[in-house]
Every structure is written in structure tokens, then in C-alpha cells.
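Internal ticket - ligand job 331, S-adenosylmethionine:
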Amino acid sequence: MLAVKVPKREAENVRRKLIELGVLAKGYSPKREKDFVLFPVTRPVEGFELAEAEFKKTERRPHSYREVVEVPKELRSLLPSSFDIIGDIAIIELPEELIEYGKAIGEAILKVHRHIKAVFAKGSKVSGEYRVRELIHLAGEKRTETLHRENGIRLKLDVAKVYFSPRLATERMRVFEKVQPGEIIFDMFAGVGPYSILLAKKAKLVFACDINPWAIKYLEENRKLNKTPNVIPILGDVRKVTGQIEADRVIMNLPKFADRFLREAMLSVKSGGIIHYYGFDPEEDLFSEHKRKIKNVAGEFGFKVEFLDERKVRPYAPRQFNIAIDFRVWK
Ligand SMILES: C[S@@+](CC[C@H](N)C(=O)[O-])C[C@H]1O[C@@H](n2cnc3c(N)ncnc32)[C@H](O)[C@@H]1O
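stdout (C-alpha cells):
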């Protein structure tokens, strides 16, 4: 094969130049020969010493675990194309037919994604007051605590003990961009603090409430880890602090039951303040039922509601969406 021969010390510059010229042959490793490096090229290049050499093909690393996993042929189409990554832990949703191949799937994920150290399958839906799910260990370390990086902050959490979804990172950044310096924020269902800690980078004070003691334990750690002493953790039922906080902005990230807490949210926001409301809804009727409930509750108190924005945050289940509605409350 045709090659360009260069002294070792010039190798990196020449490699860049060959790429720029579009002549570096792809799929081969450069060859070292004493003080020289040989690069395979697709045609003669002026100004360089040319030579003939044999090159080894470079091994292409698989991009997906699906390329390396061994499961019966007829089940291959059932292999999920994606999974969640929280810190160094992968969580995959497997159809029943693939459960018995869980170990092989987990090991394939570890092989392809070197930064992942443990793989779990979803063992149930998110349920209960703490909004957690059962996990089935598939491969790697039997560890559920990890450190997740998102939007420039670090979050320590235990995927088996608290709710956390990396799929909400964009939505959290969207809310962050709306926050004005000096705001007082009330994160009613804070979890380990992905909203609270992020928003605290701009806000004056963030009250972060959660009923799950594990969530508050990690929130306390995350507050230190991210140097955000302006986050005030509150352990307990959010109903108990209603009326004690007057916030410029309220976050209601409990999509399954947020409608049950609209009174608490409206009583905790200043006149002219904003509520970020989340819900789940079928594709056919995304926002109207939630907006009707919001208006009804505001009406009970004689408050006025100004709807500011509504959007689909992410698909949640077949034909179901996690939706967000932002509205202002006038008292
Ligand atoms: C869907 S998770 C959201 C957590 C976090 N905001 C996030 O984005 O990861 C809802 C959280 O609300 C908490 N929760 C549920 N009911 C509550 C209540 N009555 N009072 C306070 N927190 C509650 C759960 O423990 C859970 O951590």
C-alpha cells in the first residue's frame, strides 16, 4: 500500500495535514519503523517521502451493545435501542421475552460502554409516594449509588432509593434560563435536587421539599458538593409547609399527582409569581384537562391565572406524554 514516511516528531502535524488534504486512507493503523512513522495514503502526495508498506486494519469498536450481544435471532428485534445512564449505572427496560438473556445483555453493555460499571433492568413501574422502582441486577458491580453530572452540576444519588430521570435535563435547563437573579424558589418535590441545585446557581434562595428521607439525605450532600448553601432542604410532606413560603417561582415536578397539590402551590406563590406544573396526558388531549383543573383551583381562591407556555417534555408511555404548563398566578 502507498505510504507517506515522516520522522516521528513530525507525525502528528503530518497526520493532520493528510486528513486536511483528504488523502489519509481510512481503516488502517499507522506503522512505526524506528524513528519514522508511515501513514497509508490513497494517492501520491507532493512534498512528502513516499514508500510502500503493509498496514494492519484498525478494529472498529462497536457503537451499540446490540452488535455484540448474543440472543436468539428471532428475539433480536426486541432488543431496546436505548437505555438510561445515571452516572456510571445503566438502567434498561427489557421486554419479558428478553429477561432470561438479561445477564448477556448487561455484559454486552459493559463491554461496549467502558464508563458503565453496573447494569440493571427495570423491575417495575415507578410507583408509591417516593416514586421509585424495583431494579434487577444484570451485570457489573452490585451497586446502586452513583455520581451523575448534568447541566454543570454533580448529583450523588442511589437509583434504588430515590427518583431520578436523566431525561429531564433539558427541561431543567429551560426552567433555569427563565430564573431571574434574586428569586425565591419553592421546589415542592425536590428529590435529590436536580432542579433545586441548578436553580440555586441563579436564585437567592431555594426551598427544597421532599417526603423521602433518602432524597433529602442526598440533597444535603449535593448542596455541599455543588456549593449551594442557598438551598434549604425540608424533609416531610409538602402540605405541612404550605402557606409558610412566599415564592417567586414554584416547581411542581410530581407529574402523576401534581393536580392534587395545586392548592398548596397557589398558596405558596406571590401574586404575579410563576408555577411550573407537570403532568401526564394522552396524545389526543394534552393540556386541556390540566388547564381546567388549574383554573378551577385558582377560582376557589379568587385568583386569576395567566397561561404562559405549554409543551411536551418527553414521551412517557405509548401515546402518553409528560407535559409541562407554565402559568402566572394573580392574587
Ligand atoms: C417525580 S419525583 C421528582 C424529583 C425531582 N424533582 C427530579 O426531577 O428528579 C417526585 C418527588 O416527590 C416526592 N414526593 C411525593 N409526594 C410528596 C409529598 N406529599 N410531599 C413532598 N414530597 C413528595 C417523592 O419522594 C419524589 O422524590
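Auto-summary: The chain has seven helices and 17 strands. The CA atoms of residues 234 and 253 lie 16 Å apart.
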